[in-house]
Design a protein that fits this description.
seven-stranded mixed β-sheet; Rossmann fold; alpha/beta
Amino acid sequence: MIGYFSSGIARIPHLDVLLGDACGRITRFRPQAVTQVAGWGIKPSASRARRFAARRRLPYLSLEDGFLRSLGLGVNGGALHSLIVDTTGIYYDASRPSDLERLIAEAPFDAPELARATRGIAALRRHRLSKYNHAPDDPLPVTGRRRVLVVDQTRGDASVAFGGADEHTFLQMLQQAITDNPDAEVLVKIHPDVVAGKKQGYLLAAARQAGCTLLTEDLSPWAVLDAVEQVYVVSSQLGFDALLAGKRVSCFGIPFYAGWGLTRDYQHCPRRGVSRSLEQLFAAAYLRYCRYINPYTGQRCELEDTIELITEQRRLLNRLRGDWLAVGFSRWKRSFLSGFLGSAARLRFVGSSAVRLDEVNEQTRLLVWASALTPGLHDACRSAGLSLWRMEDGFVRSVGLGVDRVPPLSLVLDSRGIYYDATTASDLEVLLNETQFDQALLARAARLRQRLVELQLSKYNVGKPESYELPPGRRILLVPGQVESDASIARGSPEVKSNLVLLQQVREQHPDAFIIYKPHPDVVGGGRYGAVSRRASQGLFDLQLSDVSITDLLSRVDEVHTISSLTGFEALLRGVKVVTYGLPFYAGWGLTQDRIRCSRRCRRLTLDQLVAATLICYPVYVDPQTAEQIDVESAITLLAAQRTAGAGTGMGRRLYRLFRNLFLKR
């Protein structure tokens, strides 16, 4: 049992997984059960835990945020992706050894691990990641002068005092940077809270007096490092980011990366002094010292997984950053919309009848539910030069139906059109036409496809295995029914408009096939139009299955014939032949047999290219617990867990369905 006193530690999700043992708060009723004691580093707030451990002669574990912590700031609730657990000291305390210092000094790394470190460094450079990753990555204005960077820190930062520094150290550093670079522009990075008066730093007044350029905005470290030749630090992690960026670094304190021959050091640590490569430091700090977890699934992971997840989160954060005006959204959809736009989006809601486009700033993006967009609003936005985005359910959505008000794990946001509207281009169509898919993305798509098939996941994940007999020796064709009032038929199928007409054409072309008809779940649930009468469909199909799992059914059929159903895409994932009678997003790329064609789709794709664009690049996925954007792999894990837990049509949803069918217009 690992015990702790801190309420902050108690709030860390999945703490037992990160620590690798059972853990809990120490109380006077069960102190004897504790075999180790954990506290937050060596800060004053952890003094009670350290005293308790010393008194009972128990091992003390110093906990700290990892070096690749999260998308957003921890103080703002950003989910923790990595944690440090040090049994000797803590990395920022240079007055005594730590586990990290020992790892660097011993450097017990073989060639494969150093190669992995090389790849990790390259990945952080490529994706421009640091400890926190929420800040804009906007380049600094070009001045034509050579620049150097001096990094201030906030007073009270434990790494300053335990790094052998004080206020004089910072002033010495600033003066040295000015002396070393008489012709350069000296940039001084000041924490935004210091400028706002919320915290105190060390260099604000001195930098102003010396005529230095103050950087007070919350910017990505990589944006600043791009603009400078060398960096001066006391103990900030920004110094290690600078090493990763290939910059010269001068250290006036003793951070963990000083004393190993990679930096110009103004203080000496007698325990160090051996030369180590950047790869060895990285392997020690990022591969051995830090522990990583997916904070949404609760599963331990590796550095590479954390890099992929935070990279995806930041891509979405930056894509959707800015002002949004959501028009005509129901109260239910408003409840989950902000999470999909992300923490950098500023969102306002307005009713359809209350929107005044003449009062909307041209930088604001308007957002509508795709099927609710009226021609009048579309034309008015175009005339006013406003950006209009459409939103719709994603392709791997939930356990349960949207019509039953089951919240989605995925949505798509489209700046051009929407994926089911073949009358105009969409962001997905552009992705499919223009993306240069690299091998890493295609390998990820292949793993994703395999996992979806293995887990038997689909869009809604409703239905159950049913016992039904299929005739041996006959071709088995599946015709998935659709909601006939859906815009996907109105805008994606110029000829076949109803389930009945589709069945008639399939039977006419395949008179000897065994045809299975599966009505759409929304139609079966009574929420939408599209039912086929028994009399009109006599002889058009051989078997109707309503509540069977679509993934179970796809494993037993030879072909899928559809207007534009997502079932066709799910069939492609499983290697089933697909014939389309409309223009779904997956048609026209050489993967399906198409009755009609789209002249805009002029590229032949592989299945993994289709999957990469459709499931990785296009949608937005959100964790239902934290409302934070996540990657598709995390969403699939959560979806599988929800299905296992039995999420779906509970009593509340059945009562809502009854009310909807009786009183609401379908």
